[in-house]
Design brief:
single chain; about 170 residues; Bifunctional nuclease domain; 9-stranded mixed sheet; 5 helices
Length: about 170
Amino acid sequence: MEIEVKIRGLVIDPTANTPIVILKDVNSDTLLPIWVGTYEANAIALEIEKVATQRPMTHDLLKNVIQQMGAQVDRVVVTELRDNTFYAVIELSMNGKKIFIDSRPSDAIALALRTDSPIYVNEEVLRNSRNTISDKATEEEEEPQIEIEEEIEWPDEIDDSDIKYKM
């Protein structure tokens, strides 16, 4: 079964200094963090903020190609988590046929934002992700709890003040 999610925000992992897209189940408080590349995070942030660029960026180009071919993006799905790597597909409709295109989740999300397409996550991915957290924890305490030993761990809770781009 697949669960519809929305983008809850973009944050920076303080340990690795890399961007994280936070996906939230639309019907529960479950959050799924997905580490993404800097360029993909920028593409997602530009669309969240509705920043117009002078020339089409890569995801805008992909959207334009899909539309000019007479296809449409039906949805994107984060399908699998294997060896700490997330996998996704972009589901298209064209001439009454379904087309499934392999994608990185970050690219699929950036495209979904540009085409106003829903984002889904396979339920098994949510179950198997050890970084899946509940948003309820963010409402119960004011400060996130981050244990510092030799290195900083992923926080058990996300405070709204940590989220740079909120949805």
